[in-house]
Fold these 3 entries.
Entry 1:
Amino acid sequence: MLQDTLSFATPDCSGCPIRHRAVCARCDSDELARLEEIKYYRSFEAGQTVIWSGDRMDFVGSVVSGIATLTQTMEDGRTQMVGLLLPSDFVGRPGRDGAAYDVVATSDLVMCCFRKKPFEQLMETTPHIAQRLLQMTLDELDAAREWMLVLGRKTAREKIASLLAIIGRRDASIQSAPMSGRIVFDLPLTREAMADYLGLTLETVSRQVSALKRDGVIELQGKRHVTVPDFSRLLEEAGDDADGGLLV
């Protein structure tokens, strides 16, 4: 079940950490004011289910902080993690009543939610929202296609490096930090979750993370605090170039 609405010190969007990436990124002040009228915040604890597949969704929204997983369950009970929701990612589909996947918070999660019907009406009258959502949907499609390559063709070491690069790049973007040289971020996934998402065993994930650490590609403080001394080297380990594209 959803938790109570959060009370934030900032009553508007001006101090939002995802303002430049979220669905409202292109909105002007009048459009933001209209969004404010239908907006509310929700918080979820790590491990809590945001929505079950097939359930009716009366909201859409963006991840403000934390991370969630998209999971699909087969008829025999087997589950597969099919995506990650990182800060600024959009949850829910306008025009669709039910949820397509289980959405589960893997860390403490804060979401900026909009009542679904009013949001759908805003999309019809506010081109900036519809255009931004289309762009985000196409970006999500590109990411899904790229992830097919990661899962289907990359080695275990490249898979781990790719996941670290994706999380590091997104964190740097949210923080408006340069995506080159030395970057520092907190890994929001457990080793078990990484193994599930990458289609690897827990032992393989632990072994490859240790190898990347031993080779100086990453530095670890505890299990979650990651320092990448040279981001371009991490991209090379992932089989990507400096722009994040596949090396050919």
Entry 2:
Amino acid sequence: MSTMIKMVRSLAAVAALAVATPAVAAGANVEIHPQQWSFSGPFGFYDRGQLQRGFKVYQEVCQACHGLKQVAFRNLAENGGPSFSEDAAKQIASEYTVVDGPDDDGEMFDRPAILADRFPSPFPNVNAARAANGGAYPPDFSLLAKARAAQRGFPWFVFDIFTQYQESGPDYIYSLLTGYEEDPEGIEVPVGQYYNHSFLAGQFISMAPPLSDELVEYTDGSPMTVDQYAKDVSAFMMWAAEPHLEDRKKIGFRVMVFLIVFAGLLYFTKKQLWRNVDH
């Protein structure tokens, strides 16, 4: 009986912790706005046009502060990504300078990037990045869409297993980029910071609002609004963090079909082998 009581108490403690998790991880009054993404669900896929627009937003707005050091230029032309042509990816790479060497004299030198290179960081080191941004360190974008996400806690994470919800990262990034607002009455915002109701670490963020309407020119007719820019760059960051998402989902679907067929064969085999045996 004492063992049963201990088990019940343990389960109750785990449930209480799960319920408390969102408030601890996300902070109070954090607003996350789930979006409809082409890559959600078991059959999701990346929208190539959206990834290319998101890359343009990254290039023209974000890359001055945020790196992309885990992504190589060749990835831009690979299947499952933005699907730039190889020539276009080479042209993009040639616009960047990377450090190479040593040469015959033992010296490092600068050269134009090639497809095999990764995106260079905007700052030589963390201290330089902090010094240029008032003490705040702009995180690298490579894995941010997987590393930054609002925890949904109990019971939502149970539902997520069945709905296959895995887009909390881009949902959070979108909400953050669109979550800036004028300083609310009665709240004193520290000097050099901005009010954002979707920031997980608190209501004040050191990054100034990076987006505004008509900031980046789209040539495909898409709206040039903060909302569209935020969606596009969030989708691009999701691809950077999980470039093989489409292949993973295809393999997962094939495995599930195989397991269902295999289970059916096992069932009928059992029925055939044991049909004349008394139970």
Entry 3:
Amino acid sequence: MRSDTPALLGYFERMLLIRGVEDEIARLRTAGDMVGSIHLCSGQEAVYVGAVAALDLSRDAVFPTYRGHGWALACGVPPEALFAEILGRVAGINGGRGGSAYFTAPRYGMYGENSIVGAGAPIAAGAALAAAFDGSGRVAVAAFGDGALNQGAVHEAMNFAAVRGLPVVFVVENNAYSELTPIADMTRNPELFRRAAAYGMPGGRVDGNDPDAVARAMETCVQRARDGAGPALLECVTQRIVGHYIGDAQHYRPAGDLDRAVAAEPIGRLAERLSAEGVAAGELDAIRARVADRVQAASRLALDSPPADPATALEHLYA
């Protein structure tokens, strides 16, 4: 067994948890226990666990998109609280008020999803600006999809962060589709990280289906930002193995595209690597069983939680 095997096993278990939660959310949504639009991240798990491994969540801040379940779980949000939130139950991380696309968990370093495409980038720049004054050593992470890189607010945030030398890492989850549109139809240059040069910041591209590679690339960006050298743009190349939303028939994907994405997805790849490094099949199966049990127990607990009371909707608001 190699020296890095324990860390890889940790990545494997955390990715399995994210995948298991997303699969259970899909089941609950199909059964009618959940309502509303829900965006799953199955296939992109390596981006979240790898990126978060490079952070200090006692002070760093993560600002994901509406596809944020994976970021939340990677940050340590309990699956019980996540299920309950999406189910609209009082035991939810925000008491059932945030739902799938709007919940926040600052106690875990996850400062809220945002369904306005790209809107998390200027908010993260604000958190980084605060860090420049409060001495916290905080690094902010703004995560968004490939399509969001075309949003004006993202350009403004990157330019502002570069000019001010702010401690923020911009993470592009390039899953090849801007909602239902291939990235090749959205931009002339598919190497999105090269846009960083226009702002005078470093940019890099990493295999987003390899959590170890993501972690190492993020460590460089995070340490650079923490040392006062300013922002960076990291493009993580991945693919989702589910639709853009639950119910998406994915007719826009060409024949064989989904099969190739499934063949390259991160959990199976990491299992093969761990087996090659000498990890017994029984140990991997035990992790799978432990995660599956936890997901099912968390789902049942959330379903047993009382629904949020509409009479409390005005609580926690400013008058």
